[in-house]
Amino acid sequence: MRVALDALGGDHGPAPNLQGAASALRGLPDLTVVAVGEPGTLEPHLASAELDADRFEVVPCVGSVGMDEKPTVALREKPECSLAVMWKLLAEKQVDAVVSAGNTGAVVAAGLRTRQFLKPVKRPGIAVPLPTSAGRSVLMDCGANPHAKPEHLFQYGVIGAVYAREILGIERPRIGTLNIGSEEGKGNELVGETHELFKSAGSLPGEYVGYVEGRGIYHGEADVTVCEGFVGNVVLKVSEGFAQYLLRAVGEGLVGAGVLGPEDAMKTVGGVGRRFAYQATGGAPLLGVDGACLIAHGSSDGDAIANAIKAAAEMVSKDVNGQIVAALGG
Amino acid sequence: MRVALDALGGDHGPAPNLQGAASALRGLPDLTVVAVGEPGTLEPHLASAELDADRFEVVPCVGSVGMDEKPTVALREKPECSLAVMWKLLAEKQVDAVVSAGNTGAVVAAGLRTRQFLKPVKRPGIAVPLPTSAGRSVLMDCGANPHAKPEHLFQYGVIGAVYAREILGIERPRIGTLNIGSEEGKGNELVGETHELFKSAGSLPGEYVGYVEGRGIYHGEADVTVCEGFVGNVVLKVSEGFAQYLLRAVGEGLVGAGVLGPEDAMKTVGGVGRRFAYQATGGAPLLGVDGACLIAHGSSDGDAIANAIKAAAEMVSKDVNGQIVAALGG
Lengths: 330, 330
Description:
The structure is a homodimer.
Chain A: E1 2-6, H1 14-27, E2 32-37, H2 39-49, E3 56-60, H3 71-77, H4 82-91, E4 97-100, H5 104-113, E5 125-132, E6 135-140, H6 150-166, E7 174-178, H7 189-199, E8 207-212, H8 214-219, E9 224-226, H9 229-256, H10 262-275, H11 278-281, E10 284-287, E11 292-295, H12 302-317, H13 320-327
Parallel strand pairs in A: 1-2, 1-4, 2-3, 4-11, 6-9, 7-8, 7-9
Antiparallel strand pairs in A: 5-6, 5-10, 10-11
Helix pairs in contact in A: 1-2, 1-12, 3-5, 6-7, 6-13, 9-10
C-alpha cells in the first residue's frame, strides 16, 4: 500500500504533513508514504517527525501551489509542483492513492488533467461526508464539476452510495436529489432530468428517495444527496461559516447568562464544532479517478493528515473503485 | 396605508393571522388591514382577535393553497383562492402591500402572474435578511427566479442595496456575488458575467466588493449577496436545517456535561435560534413588484405576522420601491 502525500500542501507547510505521515505509518504496518516536496524544505522537519525510514520516501518536486493562487495559472507556471508530481505518481501506478491539504481547486484540476478516470465515470466529483441528526450522509459533488449534466449527477448517486456503503457502513443507502421543493415539477431542468434518470434506473446500490430540500441534508433525509458542484460547494462553505457564527453566538450566550465561564463555554461548543470538522472524517474523497484521492482541509493538523492517509488506504484496501465500476455497469 | 393579509395562509390557519392583524393595528394608527379569507372560516376567530372594526375589512375568497400543494396546479384549480384575491387587490391598487405566511412558491407564482413589476425590473426576487457576525445582510434571490440571467443578478444587487440601506439602515451597502472561490475566473458563466456587469457599472447604491464565498455570508463579508434562486433557496434551507441540528447538539452537549438541565439548555440555545428566525425580521420581501410583498414563514405566530405587516408598511412609508426605480435608472 503506497500513498503519495503532498508534503507542501495546506496552510501550515510541511510540519503537519510529516507528523501525519509518521502517525499513519505507526498505525498501518503495510503502508508506505511517498512524500512529494522540495528536499531542502522538508529536511528541517524530517528528524522531529520520527518517520519509519524503511517505509518513507521523498520524491522531489519544484515549488507548490499557494492556497490563494488561481489553479489553472499556477499549474501552467509550475509544471513540476508538488501536486503535479503527486498525481503523476498515481497515473504511473507508482502509488495507490494521493493525499493533499493543498489548494482544493488545484488538487482537482491537476487530477482531472491526468484523465485517469475509472472507465464508466464521465466526470469525477468531490464527496463530502457530513454529520446529520441521523448519523452521517454524503453530499456530492462539492465543486469538482462546475458543468454537471443529469447523467453526471446520476453517476454521483451511484458512486456516493457505494462510498456510503463501504466507508460509512450504511447497508442500503438512500439516494436523493437536492432541490428547492419536494414536489414533482419543482426546480430546474438539471434536477428534473436527474430525478427521471434515478426513477427509471434498473438497479442501484441503494434506494432512490426523490427530492431532498436544503433543510433535509442535516436532518438525514438521505444518505447520499446529489447536486451540481457550485451548489455543493456553497452548501459546504455556508455550513462552515454558519457553524462558526452560530457556535460563537451560543458560547457568548452561555457566558452572558452567567452559565459558564469563557473557557468552559468554548470547550462545550467546540466539542460540537469538532463533529463536523474535516479532521475527524479525514477529508473529502475525489471519487471517480483511477486510484484514491483524499482532499484534506487546508487547516489540517497532523492528526487530520494521518486520518486522511488512513481514509485513502481504507478506500484502496476495500477496493471501493472496483465496486464503483461494477455498480456503474462498467 | 392599506395592507392585504392572506388570512388563510400558514401552518396554523386564521388564528395567528388575525392576532397579528390586531397587534399591527394597535401599533400603527394609519393602518387598515384587508383580510382575505372565507368569511365562514374567519368568523369563529374574529371576536377573540379584538380587531379595530374601523380599520379592518374582510374580502371574501374561495379556498386557499395548501402548504404542500404544487403552486401552478393549485392556482389553476382555485382561481379565487386567498392568494389570488390578495394579489388582485394589489394589482387593482386597492391596497399598498400584501402579506402571506402561505405556500411560498404559490405566493410568488400568483404575484408574478399579475406582471405588476416595477418598470425597470426584469424579474422580481426574494430578499432574505440573514444575521451575521457583523449584524445583518441580505441574500437575494432566494427562490423567486429559477432562470436567472446576469442582468437579473445585477439588478438584485441594486435592489438589495436599496433595501439594505432603507430597511436595515446600512448607509453604503457592500454588494457581493456568491461564488465558489474569490479569485477571478472561478465559478460558472452566470457569476462571471454578473461580476463583469458590477465592475463596469456606472453608479451603484453601494460598493461592489467582488466575489463572496459561502462561508463569507455569515461572516458578513457583504451586506448584499446576490445569487440565483436555486442556490439562494438551498442556502436558506440548509441554514435552517443546520441550525436545528447544531443547536440541538449543543443543547444535548450541555445536558450531557451536567452543565445545564434539559429545560435551561433548550432555553439558552433557543435564544440563539430565535435570532435568525423569520419571526423577528418579519419575513422576506419579494422585491421588484409594484407594491410591497412580505412572505412570512409558514410557522408564523401572531407576533411574526404583526412584524410582517409592519415590515410591509415600512416599505411603503419609506417608498423603497420609488428608490429602487431611481437606482435602476427607471
